[in-house]
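Milestone M4 deliverable, item 7.
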Amino acid sequence: MRKQVAFIRPKPWPLANLKMAETIKAEFSDCDVDVIDIEPLILKNWWISGINLIHTIVLYGQDILTRKKKFKEAFWRTKYVYKTARQILKMNLSCKNYWFTFQMQSLFDCSLPDTPHFLYTDHTHLENLKYPGFDARKLYKNWVDLERQIYQNADINFVRSTNIRKSLIEQYQQPAEKVIISYAGSNMEFDGSIAEEKNYSNQNILFVGLDWERKGGPELIEAFKLALDKFPKATLTIVGSNPKLQLTNCKIIGQVSPSELIKFYNSASIFCMPTTNDPFGIVYLEAMQAGLPIIATNVGAIPDFIQNDWNGFLVKPGDVQGIAKGLIKLLSSAELCQLFGKRNIDLIKERYSRQAVGQKIHKHITEYLAKEIYTR
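Output delivered:
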């Protein structure tokens, strides 16, 4: 008889939620994996949504009006919706005897009594305090204790990066042995031969990001202007965002589908997104998989996969001169771009592919479950 596994996520999107479900199904191919989306289960009950709306307004109404907090975020950070989600999950999952449950992100407590539970997350709420310029008034302080319960009730907390492991241990008092870095995989599928045949002399810089301000778009523009003085044929392609710009050699594409995005990675020779705040930054992995050298900031998870002057350049957030210096170095040497690009492809294969992430998670889960059976 095949074993049953529950894969629980807030909703199908973002793409990482879909890809991770595929990864778990592939790694545990001898199991039947049920995929459960929590937010739709809650939202389809109009009375639950209505009651939680009242809780949201009472708790965060003033902060929402003054724009210190966003309504969509506040709605999912009330004690009412936290407890209600647990009750709904128990009702929906009690009909099966699951081998284990696996949870994406840390917005809900998806653990079940007497069922091994594993969590995979890219961020913590308190980690925001470490980003430069973050306004502490944006924190949901009453939420932190609930979030701590989520980590406590997981048998293993899988995280994408070193900084989040440190956050769980130091800010949420989780035992070090319960927090394992499993990294993350790219969401894109690239033809490896295209990356190897890339034209690194075309001087085409690529930016990919939806949030123009937070992702460092304005700083990139100022740095690109400085680089243009030395390399007047250099071009900048902006994908995702749609800023109002009038700038020589700059093409604004706006939002595109994931399949369309691949062609922009493949036609670029440099990737630059000098973000000021990013939980992980999956687009960096996509650019690395496409064989691009990276210019990024030394925040969050980024120092885990970008080593300064080895596979790219790291600068401080807002450092226009540093960004320009990195651009000029890469624009002046197609050979350096190719060397960094090859190192990035190798690093993706070794650590940041979906297969590598899945194998690491599979190893730790099966070892834990075997130990649990032995000790019972």
